[in-house]
Amino acid sequence: xxxxxxxxxxxxxxxxxxxxxxxxxxxxxxxxxxxxxxxxxxxxxxxxxxxxxxxxxxxxxxxxxxxxxxxxxxxxxxxxxxxxxxxxxxxxxxxxxxxxxxxxxxxxxxxxxxxxxxxxxxxxxxxxxxxxxxxxxxxxxxxxxxxxxxxxxxxxxxxxxxxxxxxxxxxxxxxxxxxxxxxxxxxxxxxxxxxxxxxxxxxxxxxxxxxxxxxxxxxxxxxxxxxxxxxxxxxx
Length: 236
What we know:
- The protein has one domain (4-213): 3-Layer(aba) Sandwich (Undecaprenyl pyrophosphate synthetase).
- It has eight helices and five strands; from the N terminus they run H-H-E-H-E-H-E-H-H-E-E-H-H.
- It has helices at 4-10, 15-35, 55-78, 94-107, 123-139, 150-154, 202-213, 223-228, and strands at residues 40-47, 81-86, 113-121, 167-170, 189-192.
- Strands 1-3-2 form a three-stranded parallel beta sheet, sandwiched between helices. Strands 4-5 form a two-stranded parallel sheet.
- Residues 232-236 have low confidence and may be disordered.
């Protein structure tokens, strides 16, 4: 969800105003995903590299995260949306961690949409964390090193249990993934837009999904092979 700061600067406002404006775009994205039957939506809210930003901006982001958790969780629950926070939340203060735990507990049985909020998240951290978990299992003889394959590794990634990632959208004009869902996006389709996040409304989300629906996903096969198959192959 890139471009909040630039959106604010273009309007001669403080960068933090852009983050607050971005909350409405989050609401629209969640509403659209829920309405269209998308199974899971993952939003990159705060990366592990974002701690390097100015302290006052980080403080506002933490306060905003806490406020949104408190103000939105009942709406999510009412709409049968399950909230999960992925990332290393140990870096947050105890009050924020408690709000995260409470929000996850309240919505844990909901099934219409899984909403992942990536907070203090990094794709490399995710992979390293999974490797550590598997190492502990091998060390304690819970499994053999020969048992480790892509399927078992995926069970220790933060998004375990979800279907393979289909579409990765980045707003704000940059053409990179910035350490987001590195393992998960192996066979994902990418969609880049110059639109800044606060302006990424429902119609633009729909445009990205339509663009995705027109692509041929080959998963290592040829186009001719795909055309002759009745069922599209799944990613490894």
